[in-house]
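Reminder: ligand-aware prediction takes two inputs, not one.
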Amino acid sequence: MGWHVTVDRGRCMGSGICAALAPELFELDGERSRARSPEIPPGETALDAADSCPALAITITDGAETVGPRPD
Ligand code: SF4
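Here is what comes back for the chain with iron/sulfur cluster:
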C-alpha cells in the first residue's frame, strides 16, 4: 500500500526545497507547494523532503501512522 502526503499550505513558506529535492512529488503553485498526487510510493526521497521542509508543512502517513517528517 502506498503512502499519503499532504502539504499544509497555511504553513508552507514557499522555499521550494521540496520541489527541488523531489520534483516528481511536489510542485510550486504560485508561492506555495503542493503534492502532485496525494498517494505516493514509499521511499526515502519523500521522507527527505518532509525532513527538509523548514516549515514542517509536509506530512507523510502510512495508513494511520505518521512516517514523515522523521523524529530528530
Ligand atoms: S519545503 Fe516546505 S516550506 Fe518549502 S516549499 Fe516545500 S512545503 Fe513549502
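The chain has two helices and six strands. The chain has one domain: 3-68. We will return to this case in the review session.
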